């Protein structure tokens, strides 16, 4: 088995084929959770797994599990997986690389007629991106019991469409109980989505930690009035107040080591050039690898919102609806052992993005395998990892899973 390797060209062709579903002119992918394109991608994944003899089941929040039997199916399976949903201007690799590395592992085991001691589980998690429906990692977070199933199925997108209705419409509102596919270990391969591995010229990142995340919806409520007749000192300008909060978020992030603060979404009402904005609703995304620092950042944002409400004499509603605490990956030594056995250059790293493995770490020994991506770009249509880089990650996944299956 030592010399067993995945098929680099087949993995690349599979990535490119999947990338056609929701493919954009600039070479990226727009395949939002619960859409027809998500269905097409899911159906393709299921057909590939069934072609290799897997049995496939879908749970109550649409997570897909393709199971390859082992010698002793009473033992917990070794799992892998990631997500197929993308950002609106996403790439071909974020999440998809992890899912299709799993498919390539499956194909390699199947064609070599390798019997593994335990079953192997290949999964696709619902709405990891948190772009159309919030929060991110929604399927894996619900699977591990961090989120309430009914509440998550009732989440709606900006058009008021329910996640549950979309999953039913695309045929992926399953009936399998959450968490009922017992796994003994879980490994997720993922592109780094940042510049470090490329900078350090390392082929593999041994992911030791997933950083903390806090998400907010911030609503600033002022008073719409005429831009030509309302003196500056008599305005309740929601845009002015919102801009102060966005700027302070940037200051908070810079004030703290490894602090990150982002406003990605903003809605202005009534959104007319000669009416002073009456309401501005926007997202806020704070991150830090340390829970104590992330809490301080949270407290500073809260205090500043109260200050702005007073100074601008208007309402600021801060809805802190999602907190993901930093998580250690306790099976990362398995990843390191496989990486060293295969002779790939590597380094320890922490995950800046959230991943489904971050929630799976609640339940089972979990590890993540990072591969470099060009210029560290992700959540961007220019996202790119080379066939060789992808193959290295998939080979590490193959050997990590084979070793874990022997335990
Ligand atoms: O937000 C994230 O880090 C991930 O892309 N869902
Ligand atoms: Mn991802
Ligand atoms: Mn992502
Ligand atoms: Mn993920």
TrEMBL record:
UniProt keyword list: Hydrolase, Metal-binding, Zinc
Cofactor dependency: Zn(2+)
Note accompanying the cofactor annotation: Binds 2 Zn(2+) ions per subunit.
CDD domains named among the record's database cross-references: M20_bAS
SUPFAM superfamilies referenced in this protein's UniProt entry, alphabetically: Bacterial exopeptidase dimerisation domain, Zn-dependent exopeptidases
Span of domain Peptidase M20 dimerisation: 212-312
Family annotation (InterPro entries): Amidase_Cbmase, Bact_exopeptidase_dim_dom, Peptidase_M20, Peptidase_M20_dimer
Entry GO MF terms: hydrolase activity, acting on carbon-nitrogen (but not peptide) bonds, in linear amidines; metal ion binding
Family of the protein in this entry: Belongs to the peptidase M20 family.
Name the record gives this protein: N-carbamoyl-L-amino-acid hydrolase
Organism: Marinomonas aquiplantarum
């Amino acid at each position: 088995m030592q010399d067993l390797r995945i098929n680099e060209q087949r993995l690349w062709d599979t990535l490119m084929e999947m990338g056609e579903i929701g493919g954009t002119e600039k070479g990226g992918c727009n395949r939002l959770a619960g859409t027809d394109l998500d269905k097409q991608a899911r159906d393709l994944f299921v057909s590939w797994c069934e072609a290799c003899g897997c049995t496939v089941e879908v749970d109550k929040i649409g997570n897909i599990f393709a199971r390859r039997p082992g010698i002793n199916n009473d033992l917990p399976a070794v799992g892998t997986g990631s997500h197929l949903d993308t950002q609106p201007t996403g790439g071909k690799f974020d999440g998809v690389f992890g899912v299709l590395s799993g498919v390539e592992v499956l194909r390699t085991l199947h064609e070599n007629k390798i019997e593994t001691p335990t079953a192997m589980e290949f999964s696709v998690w619902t709405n990891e991106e948190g772009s159309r429906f919030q929060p991110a990692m929604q399927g894996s977070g619900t699977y591990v019991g961090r989120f309430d199933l009914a509440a998550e199925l009732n989440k709606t997108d900006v058009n008021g469409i329910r996640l549950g209705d979309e999953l039913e419409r695309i045929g992926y509102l399953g009936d399998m109980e959450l968490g009922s596919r017992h796994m003994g270990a879980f490994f997720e391969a993922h592109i780094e989505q940042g510049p470090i591995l490329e900078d350090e010229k390392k082929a593999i990142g041994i992911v030791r930690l997933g950083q903390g995340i806090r998400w907010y919806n911030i609503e600033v409520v002022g008073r719409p009035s005429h831009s030509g007749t309302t003196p500056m000192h008599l305005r309740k300008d929601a845009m002015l107040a919102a801009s102060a909060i966005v700027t302070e978020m940037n200051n908070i992030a810079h004030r703290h080591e490894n602090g990150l603060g982002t406003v990605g979404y903003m809605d202005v009402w009534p959104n007319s050039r000669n009416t002073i904005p009456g309401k501005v609703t926007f997202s806020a995304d704070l991150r830090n690898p340390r829970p104590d620092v992330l809490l301080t950042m949270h407290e500073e944002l809260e205090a500043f919102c109260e200050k702005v409400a007073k100074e601008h004499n208007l309402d600021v509603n801060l809805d802190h609806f999602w907190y993901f605490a930093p998580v250690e990956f306790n099976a990362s030594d398995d990843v390191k052992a496989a990486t060293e056995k295969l002779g790939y250059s590597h380094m320890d790293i922490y995950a800046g993005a959230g991943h489904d493995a971050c929630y799976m770490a609640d339940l089972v020994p979990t590890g993540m395998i990072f591969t470099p991506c060009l210029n560290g770009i992700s959540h961007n249509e220019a996202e790119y990892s080379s066939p060789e880089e992808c193959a290295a990650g998939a080979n590490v996944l193959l050997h990590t899973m084979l070793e874990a299956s022997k335990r």
